Amino acid sequence: MESDEEEEYTLQGPVDNEGFPHGHCTLAYTSGDKFQGHFDHGAKSGKGCFHFYDGSKLEGVFDGGLLQGKGLYTYEDGSVLKGVYIDGELNGPAEEFNSEGLLTFRGQYSNGVRCGFCWIYSADGGCICGEVNEEGEMSGSNIAYIYPDMKLALIGSFVDGEMVKGQLAEVMGISEDRPQFKMVSDGGIYKCDVSTSSSISSDPQLPDPYEQQMVYVGASTIQGASEGLFMKVPVKEDKVVAFYNGLRLTHTEVDARDWSKNSNTISLDEEIVIDVPPPFHDTKHYCSSLGHKVNHSFSPNSKYDLFQHPRFGFIKCIRTIKPVSADQELTVEYGYDHHGCGADNPDAPDWYKEQMKSLKGQN
């Protein structure tokens, strides 16, 4: 992370009798990096900060020209790494946070490489933990993905943080920063099963164990709807309760179709749309995820959110935005485009337009 001491630079600040930086100085390197801090006869000594050309920076206390003790590295996107440095290299405990201040990593470093038992956290609430390999990657045969409730886990083979195959386990507790697991004997085997445009799942009848404890499909309480998704247990707000997996289509493909074929589609990102077409909309044919069963409401109790799932990959989830009681139906606002065709004529199916007109008539 540090600039090469042999690199040419321009100096602003005091010098000693031999012309070396001495006191508080600024060194501007030809690479575009810059260092500001205290010098003792040419050696960085005391508080200082490297400002790198890419917008990142490294700050801490220097001794003999090298960073020693606690240091803070701020990436160009605003995420940070807090760690312990020995002779300019990360050696010891470290934590990393994203630009929003959420913890993304906790573990150890040795000579600048992650080592030992580490935790990697996702913004959606899930995490991965285990012994990293020699390259510092979360790869091995005894890595665990832990669901957001910190009660269920999938333990097995992972490659660089992605599950290959895992078995269901219960989290019994955490001792000395390591989770204690109890394997579920009849929990089944879960494999990496990212959908494509033609395959929704290699095992469409294998339910997600976390979702299975949270929700069930039943007759909807909403007029005009057939089935809906209901809570099995009461939950607080900001709780992930279901997942929305499906075929991965392009926006161009979906936009070219009639609305009648888009009843179970949801935008994943600027390129991909998730689709649960017939016959997979029926749980007799597909029950690996149930998020597509959630109905629309202009006064919802939940929302769609992004989720990095160990089995399905990058998908959407259903996250509550208020407390939801057991046996209460989950709802989200579908969010059809109210701008492209005017606020009173959204780009949406007819039933949505009718609901919107009815709502306006009540106000």
What does this structure look like?
The protein has 363 residues and is mainly beta. It has two domains: 9-191, Histone H3 K4-specific methyltransferase SET7/9 N-terminal domain, CATH 2.20.110; 209-349, SET domain (Beta-clip-like), CATH 2.170.270.10. Helices cover 7% and strands 45% of the residues. The chain contains three helices and 26 strands. The chain has helices at residues 209-214, 251-255, 350-362; strands at 9-12, 23-29, 34-40, 43-51, 57-63, 66-74, 80-86, 89-97, 103-110, 113-121, 127-131, 140-146, 152-159, 162-175, 178-183, 189-191, 215-219, 227-231, 240-244, 247-250, 265-267, 272-275, 295-296, 302-309, 313-320, 331-332. The strands form five sheets. It has a 16-stranded antiparallel beta sheet that branches. Strands 19-25-24 form a three-stranded antiparallel beta sheet. A hairpin with a 7-residue loop joins strand 17 (215-219) and strand 18 (227-231). The radius of gyration is 26 Å and the shape is elongated. Residues 338-343 have low confidence and may be disordered. It comes from Branchiostoma belcheri (Amphioxus). One of its GO terms (molecular function) is chromatin binding.
